[in-house]
Write a structure and sequence with these properties.
Blueprint (H helix, E strand, L loop, with lengths): L8 H11 L7 H6 L5 E5 L2 E4 L4 E4 L2 H4 L8 H13 L11 H13 L4 E7 L2 H18 L7 E5 L8 H5 L4 H4 L10 E3 L14 H4 L2 H13 L3 E6 L3 E2 L5 E2 L4 H12 L2 E5 L23 E4 L11 E6 H5 L21 H16 L2 H17 L7 E7 L2 E9 L4 E2 L6 H10 L3 E2 L6 E4 L7 H19 L1
Parallel strand pairs: 3-16, 5-6, 5-7, 7-10, 10-11
Antiparallel strand pairs: 1-2, 2-3, 4-12, 8-9, 11-12, 13-14, 14-15, 14-17
Helix pairs in contact: 4-13, 5-13, 10-11, 14-16, 15-16
Bound molecules: pyridoxal-5'-phosphate.
């Protein structure tokens, strides 16, 4: 590029419209506006082609941990690139994937002892589903082929991960392509599907309903897929304390494998390294991605217990091999960055900082409690959802076509904040290393935008 003139913002915007099809985006709307073109990042900030700075309120789709373009991670990436960019795990072992797997098992909940790599959250979930089913085949229960999942679940966009999804607007179109799963009520207390609303007094009626489903389908159940503690894309639905533990107990009672999807919650987001730690739960299978590589490169893994792994051992001809694997499985560049990221957690005392920022976020959210159009505030660590409603008394939602959430985020840009909503829920999901002042800036921007769009 040295002798070539840098494209102008207008050129980049025009080429984006001409060539790029954006995900989860109505392109007709996209084409109608001038879009921000990001060219750089620094700490919690994204910088556009005109030099404007935006606080990255969604950690670049919930991935960023230590901040953008972090010197230590840049160095780890460059050092590894100078040695080896990629070699396959099909038939070869790799230094970086070995070291990372060892480290992941050290920090994972006790009992998870094997790491199967893939390259994004959806595939980590797919691996979990296939692994669970094949495990039952090998242990003499091939009829266990069905999965339980929660209402409003989101586990990715591939056919298998969508099959365990429960968000109508995303998944209904594809229903004819999906395999059928069993939907359990979500512990979404504000709009409780059991009509209860108060976890302190309801005795967790949603767990009773889950148990009934387990009894009804017991013979056929392979596993229960769920996000622990917080259903992210479902609307930042923070689960009541004890729900996860209750699910673990039911899974044990009915021989159902518990598959936790920590793609969004893993790597410190909830205030512990993994969300399941809050309730002392070890899943049978755990999917991780996003924060694993600190937002640098696509990397994912599915962790399994020794019991699951052992069921796949056998003579070659028995066909117990786990027939799954992606081209970029265990990519050395990504593994090297992930390893360095895990060191940085310790070097920078990031977990303590996340806990402080989470308390600060609680206080900042409280300022919105009396807002006439804030129906429900939900928080889990350094993640939160602000559910906007048309009528607070009746909880009547704004019609989705009014795009209130999208409009709040558009308005927030005028205050230097980038966010991305989930329907009428405004999302707070900043880089974990966000500073005290930056968090204030983020919440101020969102508050002004909420006021402007709900007035
Ligand atoms: N699982 C959860 C909980 C997620 O939040 C996501 C993405 O947002 C996924 C899975 C899918 O991950 P990916 O987009 O990397 O395929």
């Amino acid at each position: 590029m040295n002798n070539v003139e840098k494209p102008t913002t207008a050129q980049l915007q025009a080429w984006d419209k001409q060539y790029v099809w954006h995900p989860f985006t109505q392109m007709q709307d996209w084409l109608a506006d001038d879009q921000i073109v990001i060219v750089a990042g620094e700490g919690s900030w994204l910088i556009d082609s005109d030099g404007n700075r935006y606080l990255d309120g969604v950690a670049s789709m919930w991935t960023n941990v230590h901040g953008h373009s972090h010197p230590a991670l840049n160095k780890a990436l460059a050092d590894q690139a100078a040695r080896l960019e990629h070699s396959t795990l099909l038939g070869l072992a790799g230094e970086q994937s070995i070291l990372l797997a060892k480290r992941l098992v050290e920090i994972a909940p006790d009992g998870l002892s094997k790491v199967f790599y893939s390259d994004n959250g959806s595939t980590a979930v797919e691996v979990g589903l296939k692994m669970a089913y094949q495990y039952h085949c090998h242990t003499g229960e091939p009829q266990r082929s069905r999965f339980l999942r929660l209402q409003h679940a989101y586990h990715g966009d591939t056919i298998g991960s969508m099959s365990v999804g429960g968000i109508s607007i995303y998944h209904d179109t594809f229903k004819p392509l999906l395999f059928s799963t069993i939907e359990a009520p979500a512990p979404y207390c504000y709009r409780c599907p059991m009509g209860k609303h108060d976890p302190a007094s309801c005795g967790m009626a949603c767990l009773d309903a889950l148990e009934q489903l387990m009894v009804e389908h017991q013979e056929q159940l392979a596993g229960m897929m769920m996000e622990p503690l917080l259903q992210g894309a479902g609307g930042m639905l923070a689960h009541p304390a004890g729900y996860l533990k209750g699910v673990r107990q039911l899974c044990d009672r009915y021989g159902v494998l518990l598959i936790t999807d920590e793609v969004a919650t893993g790597f410190g987001r909830t205030g512990k390294m993994f969300a399941v730690e809050h309730e002392g739960v070890t899943p049978d299978i755990m999917a991780i991605s996003k924060g694993l590589c600190a937002g640098y490169l696509p990397l994912a893994a599915t962790l399994a217990t020794e019991e699951i792994y052992q069921a796949f051992l056998g003579n070659y001809a028995e066909l117990k091999t786990f027939f799954h694997g992606h081209t970029f499985t265990g990519n050395p560049l990504a593994c090297a960055v992930a390893l360095r990221s895990l060191e940085l957690f310790e070097e920078t005392g990031l977990m303590e900082s996340v806990q402080q920022r989470s308390k600060q976020l609680t206080a900042l959210l409280q300022q919105l409690e009396g807002h006439p159009h804030v129906g429900n505030l939900r928080q889990c660590g350094l993640a939160a959802g602000i559910e906007l409603v048309q009528d607070k008394a009746t909880k009547a939602a704004y019609p989705w076509e009014e795009k209130r959430g999208i409009r709040v985020c558009q308005e927030a840009r005028r205050h230097g904040v980038f966010s991305r909503p989930l329907g009428n829920t405004v999302v707070v999901f900043p880089p974990l290393a966000i500073t005290e002042d930056e968090l204030v800036f983020l919440m101020e921007g969102l508050k002004k935008a909420i006021n402007a769009v709900t007035d």
